[in-house]
Known about the structure:
Layout: E1 4-11, H1 14-21, H2 25-32, E2 33-40, E3 56-60, H3 68-84, H4 89-97, H5 105-119, H6 123-137, H7 141-153, E4 157-160, H8 169-177, E5 181-185, H9 191-194, E6 204-207, H10 210-219, E7 228-230, H11 248-254, E8 262-267, H12 277-288, E9 294-299, H13 310-315, E10 320-322, E11 326-328, E12 340-342, H14 344-356, E13 359-362, H15 367-372, E14 378-381, H16 400-408, E15 411-414, H17 417-429, H18 435-445, H19 453-465
Helix pairs in contact: 2-19, 3-5, 3-6, 7-8, 12-17
Amino acid sequence: xxxxxxxxxxxxxxxxxxxxxxxxxxxxxxxxxxxxxxxxxxxxxxxxxxxxxxxxxxxxxxxxxxxxxxxxxxxxxxxxxxxxxxxxxxxxxxxxxxxxxxxxxxxxxxxxxxxxxxxxxxxxxxxxxxxxxxxxxxxxxxxxxxxxxxxxxxxxxxxxxxxxxxxxxxxxxxxxxxxxxxxxxxxxxxxxxxxxxxxxxxxxxxxxxxxxxxxxxxxxxxxxxxxxxxxxxxxxxxxxxxxxxxxxxxxxxxxxxxxxxxxxxxxxxxxxxxxxxxxxxxxxxxxxxxxxxxxxxxxxxxxxxxxxxxxxxxxxxxxxxxxxxxxxxxxxxxxxxxxxxxxxxxxxxxxxxxxxxxxxxxxxxxxxxxxxxxxxxxxxxxxxxxxxxxxxxxxxxxxxxxxxxxxxxxxxxxxxxxxxxxxxxxxxxxxxxxxxxxxxxxxxxxxxxxxxxxxxxxxxxxxxxx
Length: 466
């Protein structure tokens, strides 16, 4: 088979690294493209270069920092987008949370942006703000370096594995300037219905499902239907790869679990939105204390190292913990969390957690989908609201992307400890009760089988090069 041309792949962060480096994607592109250039927002040393095929080259991108004019127009663009779509609760919630509570110079400027964009937030206005944003960084020193890198390798198409990071907007601008085709993968299931504006407009888009295609057309009406391609997502592809298998015996031994007892897994949210994690965990512990055949395994967020749970760990030594093995590659970055990358061991651990746990409990996380892929019952704990003094995690139930989950009946929602215990009873006594609902939700959200996800993406990238 004749190989296609030169592919440029923009890896933004640790999750993009996991999705496109630790799936089958790299093997597929190396077999189907003459040359593959990875433009990396992560340090070059993050990659195991000795394991890469010879036709793959890593280029570490210099760190780009926004100037004040660039920040102003980018912020104006993002806030205007949220003003335009604030009838969607998730976007409205993020819009409200972004309004400053202080009166510093930066805060006053942001308040001015909110007031101005409240009146001027049409698609035409948003595109104008983007024009001025791009113009403001067009002569930036780092932009000039980016241009040299693109001219040197001359990719036929530039594939962005994430559509949002503003520090990569100069690459998109330059690709447009140099007449290089661009396409972007929509990073996560909640990005369209709850986040701000993308970094810019791409020639085409890769989405998870028909649902995401519909959302993209709604939030970006200038996008032509035939430029949106449904491919599934490589986020879950490792779950069907042999590379990440571990036996149940080895799994129980590694985490010191009793192989005769059922496992409840609680998946923590990030520290910011997971402020009720400890309360949820204590609710599970109080349930387990009444039983003899249960044990709890807690998996913390990859975005943190779990220090906030030290008191809980010491108080309940019987609880087992899975602290994700994500390595920080550098700390001199505007978004330090994005510079954490997973080790192979962590994907093996995660797949085993999903496969061998009996029940999943989490706070409205994507992990709900992960566990459903292994046909496990899922309970979402949201104990906080505006009235009871706890962090208001019940508001996430109103987010558009999670409305689909709730309405599917694939999960149960526990708003207090009593409901949690009742739903744990249901999951333990009849784990298959919501099986059909889970299957239907997976079809709605992911859209394509996990098998051959990378092959589908690469086949499409070849077509887009023609």
